[in-house]
Write a structure and sequence with these properties.
Elements (H helix, E strand, L loop, with lengths): L1 H6 L4 H46 L8 H17 L7 E6 L4 E4 L1 E2 L2 E2 L3 E3 L12 E3 L2 E3 L20 E9 L14 E9 L2
Antiparallel strand pairs: 1-2, 1-8, 2-5, 3-4, 6-7, 8-9
Length: about 190
């Protein structure tokens, strides 16, 4: 009887499937989760590029009046926060170390821009250093003939910082820190 039981092949496929299906489901879930994270990251990058392109097209607004600077900052921040339908991002735009606009995005759209900063720096030139989380503007110069400490020329800039709260199923992705995707761009306008 025991020998007959060991020789039978019935239900072997079902047993193999029962043993391997959890592994396949886990791998499938990881692939779907990573795909969702990469898709969201690419949409965040697309929103950032859209804002940077808009800043490049409207470079004359950087050195313009206070109202024009604030309008430019508000336009870019709102555009970045709402350019990802269903995935509202938070965006902060600073125009030449002066006017600042912050927009908090939601899945249904973006809120109104929160204005801050001063446009009195619009005519100054800066030696910008740092990263999206920690821009360092340095000293403002009246012209761009003085060299920065790294040998580059000072300029006028628009900085764009964007963040999005994303909670992956698997927490091992290195481009997500504390459940937040963050990135930024700098556009030198002059």
């Amino acid at each position: 009887m025991i020998l007959a039981l060991l020789r039978t092949r019935r239900c072997v496929a079902a047993l193999e499937f029962a043993l391997l299906s959890p592994v396949f489901v886990l791998v499938f879930a990881a692939v779907v989760d990573l795909g969702n994270a990469l898709y969201t990251w690419s949409k965040l990058e697309q929103a950032l590029a859209l804002g940077a392109n808009y800043a490049l097209i409207n470079t004359a607004s950087v050195t313009a009046s206070d109202q024009t600077n604030q309008t430019l900052a508000n336009s870019i921040a709102t555009m970045v926060a709402t350019s990802n339908p269903g995935h509202g991002a938070d965006a902060t735009v600073v125009v030449n170390n002066g006017t600042t606009a912050t927009v908090t995005g939601t899945a249904s759209g973006a809120g109104s821009p929160s204005d801050s900063g001063t446009a009195s720096n619009a005519q100054s030139y800066y030696c910008l250093t740092g990263s999206p989380a920690n821009w360092a503007w340095g000293t403002g110069y009246a012209n761009n003939t003085t060299a920065c400490t790294d040998g580059s020329q000072p300029g006028q800039f628009v900085t764009i910082a964007v963040s999005y709260t994303f909670t992956p199923f698997f927490l091992a992705y290195h481009f997500i820190t504390n459940n937040t995707m963050t990135d930024g761009a700098v556009v030198q306008t002059n």
